[in-house]
Amino acid sequence: MIRYGVLIVGAGHAGAQAAIALRQHKFAGSVALLGDEAELPYERPPLSKEYLAGDKPFERLLIRNAAFWDERQVTLLPGRTAIRVDPTRRELVTADGETIGYGSLIWAAGGKPRRLACAGGDLAGVHSVRTRADVDRMIAELPDVRRVAVIGGGYIGLEAAAVLAKLGRSVTVLEAQDRVLARVAGEPLSRFFEDEHRTHGVDLRMGVTVDAIVGDDRVTGVRLADGEVVPAEMAIVGIGIDPAVTPLLDAGAAGGNGVLVDAQCRTSLADVFAVGDCALHANRFAGARCIRLESVQNANDQATVAAKTILGIEAAYDAVPWFWSNQYDLKLQTVGISAGHDATVLRGDPANRSFSVIYLRAGRVIALDCVNATKDYVQGRKLVLEAAEIDSARLADATVPLKDLT
Ligand code: FAD
Question: What is the pTM of this model?
């Protein structure tokens, strides 16, 4: 049985960054990066953007090329699924029955897309957007697809809707809430994106419940609770992920909706760390609530903290959250966490397609959503970091740069 100094499970953003940081900070032991996908570690955000659109080849999504991993002596173990962890023996078992030992284990397994619980959820032509394989299947089917139903008006669903509308498909977005992006953004932002999608010909249906996916061999439509069938040759399900943490929880790690970690990304199991989408952590930008963040920023920053901690370098995860989304020619950049806000300030005019929504809690700035407003995004970061207390009228005055307000 092989035993690695550090074994990393999950070869996505967080797993790759953990390996990179270990070598950057001179970890001299053996490092292995085990993942259930076939590819070299790659960037996931372009999957619902440039890659789906055909604007970026897969090679340009690679986080590093093959030679990099070779030179850094990171052993890649693709196509393997970790199913069991024995924290006492410090061993992990894969679905193929292979046992691999570790000195430290970094769990970076992200999450798996939630599936529709209703009838027809497994029909051909029903897709989620999480992996290269998912998107390659969609791209292969597209020549025979005229109408697409996107289930879920979150970022990934809307990005896919934007790409497919641009590719000339007739797109319907089905959202259970009364506005898109309801879970992650304030109403002004939702309404702005709704208008944009409608302008591009996307049919948005809010407050609807999906009853079933219909079709014989493959999807022909989506039936709503009121009986209406929305015709579609392809359905895209973007209703969130479930953290991929079962083996760790089974091994006794504390957690639930994710694996609980401390500020050093340590789980409750000795020498087992968790980072990225699967890590449940107390985040001061969420008012110290325990949350999971699903972003590249969080994956990279937590991975670096775990790697440093393994090396005995002092580190604590306390980064300002940031995120982006591209739809049509719009670049949304967010900083902070808007959940829990009790007031919003609109800065700039959405009609100009360049504006920001500033989120406040108890009079303090907690987050910004900036649309084609990179200056606000860059300068607003400090306001979030300092939880700045600034009068709403001053925040709303787009003629004064945010940096002049503190
Ligand atoms: P992942 O990147 O998901 O990597 C986890 C890996 O572990 C996967 O390869 C998974 O298959 C594998 N795995 C799971 N279970 C096991 C197991 N038991 N054994 C072995 N391997 C396993 N974030 C942004 O900040 N901006 C964006 O614009 C943005 N757009 C996105 C668009 C799409 C389509 C998607 C899917 C995500 C997007 N995100 C975006 C989110 C971002 O990609 C994730 O937050 C990030 O990938 C999380 O990194 P991770 O390493 O934790 O998980």
Answer: 0.97
- CA 50 to chain CA centroid, Å, is 16
Structure-token pair, residue 63: 């986080």
DSSP state at residue 403: G
Average predicted confidence (pLDDT) for the chain? 97
Ligand 1 neighbours (beta carbon < 6 A): 9-15, 34-37, 44-45, 47-48, 81-82, 108-110, 129-130, 156, 244, 276-277, 294-297, 299, 323-325
Q: How far is the CA of 229 from the centre of ligand 1 (A)?
A: 32
Q: Which of 199, 198, 185 lies closest to 333, judged by CA? A: 185
CB–CB of 107/246 below 8 Å? no
Nearest CA, atom 42, ligand 1: 295
Q: Which two tokens stand for residue 144?
A: 């025979």
pLDDT above 90: residue 19: yes
Q: Is the Cβ–Cβ distance between 395 and 405 less than 8 Å?
A: yes
Pocket mutation for ligand 1, best pick of 42, 246, 294, 333 (most atoms within 8 Å of C-beta) = 294
Burial per residue of 253-283, b for 16 or more beta-carbon CB atoms within 10 angstroms, e otherwise: bebeebbbbeebbbbbbeebbbbbbbbbbeb
Mutating to test ligand 1, I would choose from 277, 280, 281, 292 the residue with most ligand atoms within 8 A of its C-beta, which is 277
- Minimum CA distance residue for ligand 1 atom 23: 295
CA distance 356 to 212: 38
pLDDT of residue 5: 98
Atom of ligand 1 nearest to the CA of 135: 34
Checking if the pLDDT of 406 tops 90, the result is no
Structure tokens of 322? 């940031």
Residue range 125-177, pLDDT digits in tens: 999 999 999 999 999 999 999 999 999 999 999 999 999 999 999 999 999 99
CA-closest residue to ligand 1 atom 33? 45
Taking CA atoms, 99 is separated from 2, 26, 81, 83, 105, in Å, by 8, 27, 11, 10, 14
User: Which residue's alpha carbon is at the smallest distance from atom 32 of ligand 1?
Assistant: 45
Give backbone dihedrals phi and psi of 98, rounded to 5 degrees, phi first: -80, 140
